[in-house]
Amino acid sequence: MRELTLDLGERSYPIRIAPALLAENDWPAFIAGNQACVVTNETIAPLYLERVLARLDGKRVSVVTLPDGEEHKTLSTLNQIFDRLLEDNHTRKTTLIALGGGVVGDMTGFAAACYQRGVPFIQLPTTLLSMVDSSVGGKTGVNHALGKNMIGAFYQPECVIIDTNTLATLPAREFAAGLAEVLKYGLIADLPFYNWLEANWDGLLARDTELLAEAILRSCENKARVVAEDEREGGRRAILNLGHTFGHAIETATGYGRWLHGEAVATGMLMAARLSADLGWIAEEEVERLAGLLKRAQLPLKPPADMSAEQFLGLMARDKKVLDGRLRLVLLRRLGEAIVTDEVDQAQVVGAIEALR
Ligand SMILES: NC(=O)c1ccc[n+]([C@@H]2O[C@H](COP(=O)([O-])OP(=O)(O)OC[C@H]3O[C@@H](n4cnc5c(N)ncnc54)[C@H](O)[C@@H]3O)[C@@H](O)[C@H]2O)c1
Ligand SMILES: [Zn+2]
Predict the structure, then answer these.
(1) What is the rounded radius of gyration, in angstroms, for the C-alpha atoms of the chain?
(2) Which of 65, 72, 323, 327 has minimal Cβ neighbours within 10 Å of its Cβ?
(3) Residue partners of 251: CB distance under 8 A and separation at least 6
């Protein structure tokens, strides 16, 4: 088993990575009381719920099975969790257990932050994206009609248990979308990891479990390091948004669901790399190299054909990362080192978008 700790003083927690952890690891020891509530969705329940419930023998356990989909990541769906907790008389000593991808994890974490002003929760992520990103770092919440993730809290779990066996059932597009976020860590902060990913890319695409466990570990280590430095995104944590300002524009323009988040981030990272090369910060070949990796993963290299550069700028200006009206972008100062800057000309941003269209 691979293990690391997210270091946040008294709120530190372990992240464990290995095959068959749901069935074999002693994670149920993180449930302090005799009550628990498993939150999952209708797709994941038939696959993995039984495995989890089998570990909770002797406890009073409730199950909430949410509808599947980002469109259900709302306050009204969240109420289903509170309804069940109250109907089944869960006290402040209960533990919530998130079994699923980022949608289930974000919602369960937020429910845990709110229920009786805060109860403990455990993350059992089942998508690659949730294993390397959303389950780690304590951002929880739901969407509002006027904006994604606009209602939420910083709230850390007791532990993150990553059973790599669950990746076997993940649809191919979801898997590739998660790999985009894995590449992100190499690009922003870990050049040796980026080189390693490139060297092992075929094996990762074939879902080699040993390679995946290593890639997840390195991703979580990178995320944990950034979060430990800047838990509430006062500064450095923003580098985790490489490609995201461009990507959110694509997600918004196409309507949520057509492009997966990781797909939009992939194209967004390529735009950020293009712009970084235009500024003379990274070599031209590095843009090609990134494009090659994305292509091999069948991730998109071009924005939607009908999206103009003006539309990008308009949507990017509304992104929540914009401060004081200046466009703030995460770019690559060099390969393996991201910076946040608001000193790039709009004309250059337009140039980078046009270059990829
Ligand atoms: N909290 C954070 O820091 C953070 C970071 C990044 C993303 N997010 C959030 O995460 C969400 C995206 O997460 P996601 O990409 O995991 O999407 P998701 O939770 O919607 O899961 C993707 C799809 O895969 C299915 N699925 C999950 N595990 C499966 C498995 N093992 N086998 C088969 N199918 C499976 C799900 O039911 C769903 O249909 C977004 O809401 C995003 O805002 C949060
Ligand atoms: Zn992301």
Answers:
(1) 20
(2) 323
(3) 148, 259, 261, 264
pLDDT in the model for residue 323: 57
Task: Catalogue the active-site residues.
Answer: 117, 139, 181, 223, 233, 237, 241, 244, 248, 261
Q: How far apart are CA 338 and CA 239, in angstroms?
A: 6
Q: Which of 40, 106, 167 to mutate to test the pocket of ligand 1 (most atoms within 8 A of CB)?
A: 106
Identify which of 129, 237, 240 to mutate to test ligand 1's pocket (most ligand atoms within 8 A of the CB): 129
The helix-helix angle for 209-229 and 191-199 (nearest 10°) equals 160
Which pLDDT score is estimated for 326? Answer: 79
Query: Which pLDDT score, from 0 to 100, does residue 324 have?
Result: 66
Ligand 1 centroid to residue 209 C-alpha, Å = 20
Closest C-alpha to 243, from 137, 356, 147, 345 = 356
Compute the distance between CA of residue 67 and CA of residue 77 in angstroms, rounded to an integer: 8
Q: How far is the CA of 28 from the centre of ligand 2 (A)?
A: 29
Which of 43, 7, 184 has the alpha carbon at shortest distance from 126? 43
SS3 (DSSP) at 288: helix
Considering the entire predicted model, what is its pTM? 0.96
**Coil/strand/helix, residue 244:** helix
**268 to each of 114, 262, 291, 343, how far by Cα in Å?**
34, 9, 11, 18
Q: What's the token pair of residue 33? A: 């009381």
Q: Residues 316-351, buried b or exposed e (16+ Cβ, 10 A)?
A: beebebeeeeebbbbbbeebbbbbbeeebeeeebee
Q: Atom 7 of ligand 1 has which residue's CA nearest to it?
A: 134
Give every residue of the chain whose pLDDT is below 70, as ranges: 256, 320-325
62 and 90 Cβ atoms separated by less than 8 Å: yes
**What number does the ligand 1 atom closest to the CA of 262 have?**
15
**Residue 352 backbone dihedrals phi, psi, to 5 degrees:** -70, -40
- Distance, CA of 113 to chain centre: 19
341-345 CB contacts, 8 Å cutoff, 24+ apart: 344/275, 344/279
**Percent of the chain topping pLDDT 70:** 98
